[in-house]
Amino acid sequence: MERYNLIVVGAGPAGLSAAIESAKRGMSVMVFDENHKPGGQLFKQIHKFFGSKEHKAKIRGFNIGTELLKEASDAGVQVKLNATVIGIFENKEVTVNHDGAVHHYKADSVIIATGAAENMVPFEGWTLPGVIGAGAAQTMMNLHGVKPGKKIFMLGSGNVGLVVSFQLLQAGCEVVALVDAAPRIGGYGVHAAKVARTGVPFYLGYTIKKVIGTEKVEGVIIGKVDEHFKIIPGTEIELDVDTVCVAVGLSPMSQLLKMSGCKMEDNPRRGGQVPIVDEYGETSVPCLFAAGDVSGIEEASSAMIKGRMAGLRAAYKLGFTEEKVMTETETVYAKDLDSLRQGMFAPANRGKLIEKTDEGIPTSMNLLTKGFVAEDEIERYPGVTHQKGIHPVIECTQNIPCNPCQDACKKNCIKIGSCITALPVVTPDNCGCTGCGMCVASCSGQAIFLVHEDFEPGFTSITLPYEFLPLPEKGTVGKALSRSGEALCDAEIVGVRSAGAFDHTHLLTMKVPNEYGYKARFWRLEK
């Protein structure tokens, strides 16, 4: 029987972070993962992360995964793949199925970081081929290069539904509709806005009645729901789709923790059946920890910090780090974690309607119900200014934990302050913007545009983030789309910029008549 100071179950963001933190302090660490590749969900996440530079903000998920794997290797962490942990017993004995046999291991401490599984909802036709989880669609696209379908229906408006909808568009799929039974969008407004401006319609307060088809998905019927979430007769709409993606939340994969005998609770705010843990992730069983989504559904940035905290505490309890070092490091991690849990999307606000920002600005109700900020709402936010010359216009309208734009601007045109959930403010009256575009490329929510109201007589130029291929050439004429995806006018591409520092976010500059300078937010080549 092999022995280790620490066994980690799960090689995702939380598990790898925990393993790194422990191994750096001299512990022998083994990580088991049932998949054939380590990294968990990170390698499916091609979007840029939110947060600050301490949270790996503006770095794409798969690059964060690569960094963690290298860090783990450098620290001496052992990772065994295609290894399914099937039991945890007394005295930290772990049984693992790999290489066609069951093997037994012993550890002084164990960290469970098994993550979460996608939820499903039953409806007529939900077992037909073509009905898949949004995470499965993400795996098909971003790991295997396979389109899940041609015409996609997305159920769920949380961050997963919004992010995967955008990635489906990037893969060349048509997202026919994004539907949610809730009356308001559940995810970040910037994610919804970048989907809406491509022309995807949102149906809030609707749900699936049935999937059409006998051997595969051939369409879907949706209907408006009442206050009891029952479909109102006569409100049905039929949509022509070939794939249904379901993004209705996640449930912690806590089976191993239940087996271990630690105290559990049914906590809807944390995602369901979760272990009762202290602030460091330790369960009621000494030296048994839970980290990441298995202890409560949060973003991957939070999972990595919780993993670090669990790994550090395990090292301290086994005598591999001094109390002073542990206390100082935990204070930093706790501060970082707290900063990610502030703002409108703080765990305490889950499910609540936040009517004003922290600055006292009325929330855009149009954004919450239709996916985009209305024209009569947008100018109330401090990132939206009118100036001479080129300058940033920031359509970030919710208090979310993110501040890369502040760091990106070398001219200090953009200010957020020490609280990373504060709304970005653009310096008024000739901010000194050079038009470098770093703020546009660094924005994880693709909510920053460079506007030049005096580009040419009668024309305004708009530089926008663009992550679609093929890139248009300079001189190409297409359509400028509004925040709602409505075609506004012809728009000529007058600039295309790509740079290593932009990390695959290309900058398109289009010119439009002046009256559309604060309305046009996307460009499309007409078929």
Total domains, how many?
A: 3
N-to-C terminal Cα separation, in Å?
A: 64 Å
Radius of gyration: 24 Å
Which structural category do the helix and sheet elements fall into? alpha/beta
CATH class of the largest domain: Alpha Beta
Q: Helix fraction? A: 10-25%
Protein name: Thioredoxin reductase
Pfam families: Pyr_redox_2
GO molecular function: oxidoreductase activity
Domain 4Fe-4S ferredoxin-type: 422-453
Summary tags:
alpha/beta, 28 strands, FAD/NAD(P)-binding domain, FAD/NAD-binding_dom, 3 domains, 527 residues
Fold and architecture overview:
By secondary structure, the chain is α/β, with parallel strands linked by helices. The chain has three domains: 2-117 and 251-340, FAD/NAD(P)-binding domain (3-Layer(bba) Sandwich), CATH 3.50.50.60; 120-246, FAD/NAD(P)-binding domain; 373-524, no CATH class. It is 22% helix and 28% strand. The strands form seven sheets. Strands 1, 2, 3, 4, 5, 6 and 19 form a seven-stranded mixed β-sheet that branches. Helix 1 (13-23) runs parallel beside helix 7, helix 3 (134-142) packs parallel to helix 4 (159-170) and helix 4 packs parallel to helix 5 (189-196). The mean pLDDT is 95.
